[in-house]
Amino acid sequence: MMELEPVIGLEVHAQLLTRSKIFCGCSTRFGAPPNSNTCPVCLGLPGALPVLNREAVAMAVKAGLALGCHITRKSIFARKNYFYPDLPKGYQISQYDLPLAKDGKMEILTGRRLKTGQVTEYAKRSFGITRVHLEEDAGKSIHRSGEDTYVDLNRTGVPLIEIVSEPDFRSSQEAYDYLNNLRRTLLYLGICDGNMEEGSLRCDANVSVRPAGSSALGTKTEIKNLNSFRFLQKALEYEIERQGKVLREGGKVEQQTRLWDEESHKTLVMRSKEEAHDYRYFADPDLLPLVISQEWIEELKGEIPELPEKRRQRFVEQFSLAHEEALLLTQTRQFADYFETAVKTAVKTADQPRAIFNWMLGELTRHLKKDNRDITQCPVKPEHLADLICLIDQGGISGKMAKQVFDEMYETGEGPQAIISQEGLQQISDRDELESIVNRVLDSNPQQVEAYRAGKEGLLGFFMGQVMKETRGQANPQMVSQMLQGQLQSRTGKSS
Q1: pLDDT tens by residue, 213-262
Q2: What is the reported pLDDT for 496?
Q3: Which residues share a beta bridge with 149?
Q4: Do 127 and 178 contact (CB within 8 A), yes or no?
Q5: Which end of the chain has fewer CB atoms < 10 Å from its terminal CB, N or C?
Q6: Judging by beta carbons within 10 Å of its beta carbon (0-12, 13-18, 19+), is residue 263 exposed, middle or buried?
Q7: Rounded distance, CA 89 to CA 40, Å?
Q8: How is residue 116 annotated by DSSP?
Q9: Is residue 145 packed enough to be buried (19+ CB in 10 Å), middle (13-18) or exposed (0-12)?
Q10: Distance between CA atoms of 160 and 204, rounded to whole angstroms?
Q11: Low-confidence ranges of the chain (pLDDT < 50)
Q12: Using H for helix, E for strand and C for coil, what is the string for 7-60?
């Protein structure tokens, strides 16, 4: 059987987080009433004067710099001509021959499943970035089955960057990991909210297959408007398998634009694939070239934070975390900042970073999801979480009590020490007091002691429960466990 390999390239459209559109002052707010965020400029009415949004340019330059691109000091806006009901001018203002940024790369760890089992092996891979260019969004057509089509032009003129990769991906997993890291990068830069459900981040994938070892590219198909990581991966896997089947049966892959259909779990033909000449690109005669000074580029470069992949690597090395753990912590800049603030606050022990990770991905995330909040809306300060973990380590509170205290911290925003004092939740760690309670519990349950002597060692949990009941859960569990085992061994005649 012919061995084939996929060749994949991605085109990602990211909506920039500006308050107004790219060439006019209309709002970019999502969810506004249809056709309410429009004006003569974004509707393309005769005589309307477009004025370029400086903030959108700054964001696009930051994206190019973060992706290792060369910033074009003088780029050109072009008209991309096509005719849809939701494109009022009959063309889209974009960039073609001279984009804002080009020739970049993204280096990341990407995973693959080993054939021997559910083990993931990670390898460092570099993926080329062909170009990053500015453009305006089109409107939205809303199709009602068997009825009319409605047009909402609120999105018309919303500023986008298109990030075009080289065809460097050889699996759906590599494409998934690249898109995930690209989204994290845009979030760290603060230039896109990454919301794929609302269309703030959209992905088109170009896919072909060829005989393994060949350098020639096969006939590609484009899968449009993939709006989730899961859909991207599923659509790529289906399309790779579909094209492979066509070639193995002696057929020829047709160049097409296709859509992913989630109900049938298939890609479906949308139209024959357009080429660049079909759009009849030419320089927009109404817009001057975009000229960017080197001084401004250097200023914007200084505003770029530590990027997520570099931060992930540092977390692995500095805090002894696994790749997957560091990846979870660095999904957003704010989540990673919370972790680092908590770690810096906590009394330094070897286990502190991992304990903070566990609480953040456990109790903290559970509460935030329940209330549909993100980390920026979290009522628990990172310093307070660090204090709580330190109290556990120092024996001032048990792990079970800590969850109760955390619930109060989340509700009130207060620190753990104040809540412990108010609720009387201090852990009992006085040896004499605990020994007295342990002896009293054993003396009160002679039948259970006899059963333990007969070999029912599972009754240790019963005795623990009785001690905790008597102390309202405030006894130090480690000390109680040791004392119970010592007393029970003594009472059964075993050496302690």
Answers
A1: 888 999 999 999 999 999 999 999 999 999 999 999 999 999 999 999 99
A2: 37
A3: 143
A4: yes
A5: N
A6: exposed
A7: 11
A8: T
A9: exposed
A10: 14
A11: 494-496
A12: EEEEEEEEECCCCECCCCCCECCCCCCCCCCCCCCCCCCCCCCCCCCHHHHHHH
Which residues, in sequence order, are CB contacts of 211 under 8 Å at separation 6+?
Answer: 2, 3, 4, 5
| Dist CA 11 CA 132 (whole Å) | 10
Query: pLDDT tens-digit profile of 83-104?
Result: 888 999 999 999 999 999 999 9
d(C-alpha 209, C-alpha 247), whole Å: 9
H or E stretch covering 64: helix 54-66
From CA 129, how far away is CA 68, in angstroms rounded? 8
Which CATH number does the domain 431-491 belong to among 2.30.30.110, 1.10.357.10, 3.40.50.920, 1.10.10.410?
1.10.10.410
Contacts of 156 (CB under 8 A, 6+ apart): 21, 38, 42, 43, 86, 87, 88, 136, 137, 138, 139
Q: Which long-range contacts (CB under 8 A, 24 or more apart) does 363-371 make?
A: 363/403, 363/406, 367/410
Cα distances (Å, whole numbers) of residue 319 to 169, 185, 314, 353, 385: 31, 22, 8, 6, 17
Longest CA span, the chain: 101
pLDDT of residue 348: 65
Please give the span between the terminal C-alpha atoms of the chain, in angstroms, as a whole number.
69
Q: What is the pLDDT of residue 277?
A: 67
Would you kindly state where each structural domain of the chain is located, as residue ranges? Answer: 4-298, 308-423, 431-491
The pLDDT of residue 350: 54
CB atoms within 10 A of CB 103: 15
How many CB atoms within 10 Å of residue 421? 10
Q: Within its chain, how far is the Cα of 109 from the centroid?
A: 15
Give the number of other Cβ atoms within 10 Å of residue 344's Cβ: 11
- pLDDT at position 392 is 85
d(CA 39, CA 50): 11
Give the torsion through C-alpha atoms of 408, 414, 415, 419, to 10 deg. Answer: -50
Identify the burial level of 49 via C-beta atoms within 10 angstroms of its C-beta, where 0-12 means exposed, 13-18 middle and 19 or more buried.
exposed
pLDDT at 424: 65
Closest C-alpha among 381, 314, 393 to residue 347: 393
Identify any residues that bridge with 150 across adjacent strands, giving them in sequence order. Answer: 142
